[in-house]
Amino acid sequence: NKQIVLASRPEGAPSKENFEFVEASLPEPEAGQVLVRTLYLSVDPYMRGRMKDTKSYAPPYALNEVIKGGAIGQVVESSEPNLRKGDLVTGMWGWQQYAAVNTTDLSLIDSDEAPITAYLGALGLTGLTAYFGMEDIGKPKDGETVVVSGAAGAVGMIAGQIGKIVGARVVGIAGSDDKCTYLKEKLGFDVVLNYKTEQDMSAAIEKACPDGVDVYFDNVGGDISDAVLRHINRNARIPLCGQISSYNLEKPDIGMRPQTLLLTNTALMKGFLLGDYTKSFKEGRAKLAKWIQEGKLQYEENIVEGFERTPEAFIGLFSGDNLGKQLVKVADP
Ligand code: NDP
């Protein structure tokens, strides 16, 4: 049973040296637990925050302990009445090939509804994040302009498509020409900007949004957000989803102070955490699944093969290696 533990806390960008592979014995499930074999692992930007030894909404990872995160697995041993051997489940047992997990921490996956990997992406944490950020805070309307940063990522591509579903003009910001082409040609985004090659982001946003910005779904923060915020409209809504451009910074990012712009535009900027919406997950997942079935919502997964490539897949999030949800395939069902 191979496991990956946090060997040291990253300083700046995470590197392979921060992670260590250890060999553990096969865990024995206690009462209320089942033995699960990992099939897929999710790697997510928020995990970088848990690698710091600072207080946040999720507790820091302890050194030399298995890194916890989203996973899909198959029950291989169970004496619990509610889960049978062979059942496919999702939970947060993290970077290990086998785990003994409390049945109360597992959700059963219906593989007839969608491919199982969707439960870590479009129908899982990232799809739901896009859904609630848009539904509860962004509230885009027909004819409005929506800007999404991190637009080719797991959350961003769903958020942008939700904008399209309601009839908004959608402008995406992403880090490569290939990603921009995908968003425009496959997902129907109206304009897509490559922030790595755009000389003047503020001017580019102004040109891309002739009627200003009504909703800015922010996944990245930093200079990109400063540029977008300069163009918000009266009563703009800004779901503050993530700030990935700052996650590897050792010193706080000092940038534009947008208060005056928020004030004079009577705009709403609101941070949100997916964990606060757990009561509505069922409803959100049903809505996303319906859109997928109707062909209104598409998603992309970037799957690397092999448990040993998990750290590499995680590190790649910060250089934009992924189009859509980054996953690691550990084993076949
Ligand atoms: P993504 O799939 O979007 O992967 C990360 C992407 O971020 C990369 O592909 C890269 O794309 C982009 N990126 C990396 N570094 C930078 C940078 N310095 N500046 C701009 N873009 C950068 O990840 P997720 O969809 O899982 O997450 C997106 C955001 O949502 C994250 O900030 C995450 O923390 C947040 N989040 C928040 C939640 C909440 O509850 N509020 C829940 C889940 C996620 P590119 O090539 O375009 O640079």
What does the model show?
With about 325 residues, the protein is of the alpha/beta class. The protein folds into two domains: about 1-120 and about 300-330, Medium-chain alcohol dehydrogenases, catalytic domain (Quinone Oxidoreductase, Chain A, domain 1, Alpha-Beta Complex); about 125-275, NAD(P)-binding Rossmann-like Domain (Rossmann fold), CATH 3.40.50. Helices cover about 25% and strands about 25% of the residues. It is built from nine helices and 15 strands. The strands form three sheets. Strands 3, 4, 5, 6, 7, 14 and 15 form a seven-stranded mixed beta sheet that branches. Helix 2 (about 125-140) packs across helix 3 (about 155-165), helix 2 crosses helix 8 (about 280-295) and helix 5 crosses helix 6. The chain binds NADPH dihydro-nicotinamide-adenine-dinucleotide phosphate.
Summarize the structure.
This protein has 333 residues and is of the alpha/beta class. Helix content is 25%, strand content 24%.
